[in-house]
Amino acid sequence: MHCFFHLVHTHERILDETGIEVSDLEAAHYYALKAIQELRQEGDEETDWDGWQLQVTDASGRILLEIPLDTAQH
Questions:
Q1: Is residue 74 part of a domain?
Q2: 20-21 and 2-9 as β-strands: parallel, antiparallel, unpaired?
Q3: Where is the DUF6894 domain (predicted)?
Q4: Which distant-in-sequence residues (6+ apart) come within 8 Å of 48 by Cβ?
Q5: Residue from 49, 20, 24, 19 nearest 37 by CA
Q6: Considering the entire predicted model, what is its pTM?
Q7: Predicted local confidence at residue 74, as pLDDT
Q8: pLDDT by residue for the chain (74 residues), tens digit each?
């Protein structure tokens, strides 16, 4: 299945227009956590992720997963 990983805040959206092909929802969850880890490594220590979420959607836009960035475990 093709999934997209969007960064979402109350009034902001950073859309993933490419997405990736994953085998199942478990794989999508794995890649979402990996993306969050990479975002944290790229950002500085003062980056405030409060209120941000990573939304994983399918090709039709249906939300499959929502992971808050301020509390995500990786």
A1: no
A2: antiparallel
A3: 3-69
A4: none
A5: 49
A6: 0.84
A7: 45
A8: 999 999 999 889 999 999 999 999 999 999 999 998 888 888 666 677 888 999 999 999 999 999 998 765 44
Pick from 28, 22, 12: nearest CA to 63:
28
Is 22 part of a structural domain of the chain? Answer: yes
What is the four-CA torsion angle of 51, 53, 11, 1, rounded to 10 degrees? -170
C-beta of residue 43 within 8 angstroms of C-beta of residue 50: no
Nearest CA among 40, 49, 50, 56 for reference residue 1: 56
- Whether the CA torsion 24, 26, 31, 32 is positive or negative: it is positive
- Give a yes or no: residue 27 inside a domain: yes
